[in-house]
Amino acid sequence: MPKGAIQPAGSLATWSRGRADWSDRAVAVVVWLTALAVTGVFVWILADVLRHGVSGLSWGFLIDGPRDAGRAGGIGPMIVSTLLVLMVCLAVSAPIGVGTAVWLAEFARGGGLLGRLVRRSLDVLAGVPSIVFGLFGNALFCIYLGMGFSILSGGLTLSCMVLPLLIRSCEAGLRAVPDEYRRAAEALGLSRSAVLWRILLPAATPGLVVGLVLGVGRALGETAALLFTSGYVDRMPGSLMDSGRTLSVHIYDLAMNVPGGQSRAYATAIVLISLLMIVNTLTCHLADRWLHRRITRT
Amino acid sequence: MNAQSTTEVIRPWTQRRPCCDTSETCIQVQGLSVHYQGQQALGDVSLSIPRGCITAIVGPSGCGKSTFLNCLNRMTDMIPGCTVSGNVRLMGQDIMQNGTDLISLRRRVGMIFQKPNPFPLSIRKNLTFALKHHGMKRRSDRDEAARNALCQVGLWEEVKDRLDAPAQDLSGGQQQRLCLARALVLKPQVLLLDEPSSSLDPVASGVVEDLISQLRGEYTQVIVTHNLAQARRIADHVAVFWTRHGSGQLIEAGPISQVFDDPQHELTATYISGLRG
Q: pTM of the full predicted structure?
């Protein structure tokens, strides 16, 4: 060491280095363990579901209707009902969600009273138990608006439930878009709507996709809110006004109410998880393509 | 080596480009004050900016240089809690009036920022987007204008084969030149440059600086810079800002040689000699 260089006292230096080494190692071990534990739980669940359910899977299981309260037959009607409920939910919540997010992120940026109120309400709504949404949906859509137990009521109730999640993550996505784009656009004399549509929304796509994926996940997995709204009739739905049983409601019914329905419940769970993965991959893929088109098309 | 050739080595562009026309004022600023949330940031600035020249705004951090620049295209309107008083005339027209058409103002007064900020679009779309928005209907016209702007900033040869690639793939210096092209494509009269080369490496910074020099005469340019050497190299006029009593003020302005060689104000003298600031 050159003369005059800063040099801590010998024993103190060794002691503090040893302490730093020890605490670095401890932190590394803890973060590895937590990551492994999370992955481990997921793998365990997946392995368990696959072990119990894979024998029940067949082409007939995917397209046939259930027999003997679900102990035999398939889950064709449930897959259709699930997709219909999801469709209604996304068709309603995506435009409202993105619209509200744009308002929150672009028009109510400052700490205005209305903006604060909307954000606070959304945060509270995001924490409301799904069964409460079920009761609310039952009262509003099924009874007051006269839609009865139907896929439409179920989808609308789910969209109420998914909206807070969707709006907040879309808002976060829009807020993550650097302010420099807004300033550059303003300096070029561009209108707000052009900037929003052409620059901010495409740039916020990653956030929007996260919102959609979380929303789809929550909607597909929902049981309690749907028991009261879309009902649990296991026939193939003829229209959106028919009652329909979704996959998660079917799993719940088989596991809780049908003795001997366990293996079918597991097989249905495999289908549900696969559906979730397919919808999520599709969402990411479509968003990616849309983004690419926005970037290059003149 | 005689004095003439020394000048040529240091400032060759003065030979190539027409000298700026100092007889005509492009922007006349009178009694301009800016307050942020009631706190004065800029006090009573009066300055006339000659047409076609490069005017450098120099001074230590926080003395209101960027605030001053933002007033010239009314970007201050975007800042919540910011109030501007005083008079700014662009070619005789008062731009601080309430009914001023901001869109046409910003078409006439382009702006380049410290950090290159191309849109997350393709190189081509970065240039054609604003043209389309401002009503240039034909695609071929827009492409032609984009090409001209890219040639003007010396970027055409570098990007002509990848016009549809994302602008974010360009290097920092190229991005800044693209931003300059994006402003030039709208054919502005004035360019406001807010430390345009301070975030770039020395080579890229030199390229941008040369470009600014080459645009002398065609555009009236106002450049905020921390780099006194840069101001001396490229500017025709200079305005020195300083913080006094908590707010930014203009302490001296004039032709570059006068301010640098024979400063009238004591603070200017200490600032340019590197003793303060």
A: 0.78
Domains and CATH numbers, chain B: 3-272 (3.40.50.300)
For chain A, which residues make up each domain, given as ranges? 14-56, 61-296
Contact B120 A296 (CB under 8 A): no
Which chain A residue is nearest to residue B123, measuring alpha carbons? Answer: A296
- Nearest CA distance, B43 vs chain A (angstrom): 24
The verdict on a CB contact (< 8 Å) between A180 and B164 is no
Q: Which amino acid would we find at residue B238?
A: V
Q: Does A238 touch chain B (CB under 8 A)?
A: no
The rounded distance, in Å, linking the Cα atoms of A208 and A175 is 11
- Model confidence band, residue B179 (pLDDT cutoffs 50, 70, 90): very high
Q: Express each pLDDT in A32-91 by its tens digit.
A: 999 999 999 999 999 999 999 999 899 999 999 999 888 888 999 999 999 999 999 999
Handedness of CA B205, B209, B214, B220 (dihedral sign): positive
From the list B75, B104, B119, the residue facing A181 with the nearest CB is: B119
pLDDT band at B15 (very low <50, low <70, confident <90, very high): very low
* Cβ-count burial B246-256 (b if 16+ within 10 Å, e if not): ebbbbbbbbeb
Q: What token pair was written down for B60?
A: 């230590």
**CA dihedral over A241, A247, A251, A254, signed as positive or negative:** positive
Residue B275: the pLDDT is 66
- pLDDT attached to residue B6: 39
Q: Report which of B245, B239, B229, B167 is spatially closest to residue B197, judged by C-alpha positions.
A: B229
Q: How far is A107 from chain B (nearest CA, A)?
A: 12
**CB nearest to B119's CB, from A110, A184, A298:** A184
Report ipTM (2 d.p.): 0.83
* Range A61-296 classified under CATH 3.30.70.380: no
If you compute the radius of gyration of chain B from its CA atoms, what whole number of angstroms results? 19
